[in-house]
Design brief:
The protein is mainly alpha-helical. It has helices at 2-5, 10-30, 37-64, 92-111, 119-138, 142-151, 153-163, 168-197, 202-210, 216-233, 242-249, 252-262, 264-277, 279-305, 310-329, 334-365, 376-379, 381-395, 402-416, 418-443, 460-478, 481-499, and strands spanning 73-81, 84-90.
Amino acid sequence: MIAQMADWPLLTIITFLPAAGALLILLARSMQRGEDAGYDRGVRLLTLLVTLLTFAISLVAFAAFDPSLPGYQLVENVPWAFGAGYRMGVDSLAMTLVMLTTFLTPICILASWVIEKQVSSYMVLFLILETLMIGVFCAQDIILFYVFFEAGLIPMFILIGVWGGERRVYAAFKFFLYTLLGSILMLVAIVAMISIAGTSGIPELTAFAQQGGFSENIQIWLWLAFFASFAVKMPMWPVHTWLPDAHVEAPTAGSVVLAAILLKMGGYGFLRFSLPMFPDASAFFTPFVFVLSVVAIVWASLVAFRQVDMKKLIAYSSVAHMGFVTMGIFTGTIQGIQGAIFQMISHGIISGALFLCVGVVYDRAHTREIAFYGGLTHRMPVYAAIFLLFTMGNVGLPGTSGFPGEILTMVGAFQVNAWVAAAACLGIIFSAAYALTLYRKVAFGVIENPKLNTMTDIDAREWVQFVPLIIATLIFGFAPSLLLDYTAVSAQTIVEQFGRAAP
């Protein structure tokens, strides 16, 4: 049955099913004279159903994919003009990120159950955003990739600007302008690449580059243009300043998507474009990336320690963890790249869960100030246990999914530059300091704030959104080979492509 379904346009179905759901909601709204509680509940249920169906179909694609084979599978190709066209395909790297996206989106919809303002518009934007995020990882034409990559800014910009906090407009424009500026430079580079290679297909561009089609000088300029976009998206220090503001002001589900998926587009871009297509330039700029990565790991961890807002602390934690990803990618070793991929998936699960943990208490107390809380173990023991698990995962405790990625990136870095690995170790120490301090202040001690006496433990809906994340965190912590074996061929291919120029 699965073999027969492999002939279906599975990637197109997965990509555009959420958009079809958004269209259905818009059609229903056009026939609705006014939004009421029953209509809003129907929209929520329909959105949840669409995202669950998308996840189910992505499981079919996952089962139909053979990770032991190199190259792209489930390929779809519809020519358009001038060598460009609608081309979709995935390797194991892209497939894991597609699965991460479809896995987390239904959880985000459950977390959005508390949204009461313009519910149908909110759900439409979230479904469109899911389509665009999946499209980024499935696109096999560089023009199509750019369209998906850039269009994703629009729904997130609106989600922050309309459903965000008090400074939502400022945060939304800062997010939009930072990411747009870098992407404009990438567009210029894409046009130059197509004019030189005569094709817009990503596999063809990669083969052209591997055969020396781009001279070293051209590679340097192209690498810098792509770096401008991917570094902001990660985000790397010092172009990270949009992230804390966006996280603090975004609704809970928006913060989850930002941390868990949108940030990973930068890492995916480095792995898909920078290393394979510009290997000489990537080798040349590796020391530069190492410096930025180590600064991000250490500096962001120190800044996180001083935060008074829970969301902002977790946002700076994301900057530090993405430093491990970029460090691992540019080691050019199998351990470093495997560790970077694992770290991206693990961070998507754990950081998303931490933002959901913040959302749970924010929905009850309507504040994220750390000083407001304390002693929550007395009123919310189940919540405190869940929060502790994900805090330990964020620290990188063995047995959680946070450990394998960090240790592998460190091993890869040590093989290339022991000083870089040693400096990055400081980030692990600092992460334990700020994460455990946060947990101590929120969960332990006595309840001094009388407003906390009315706090209730997590309800059934919140249980449902946490259980899949708990399972994923523990499974990948105790059995990391499930993910490492799946991405091994893609990682080895990237190592070989980068190794052509790496010193």
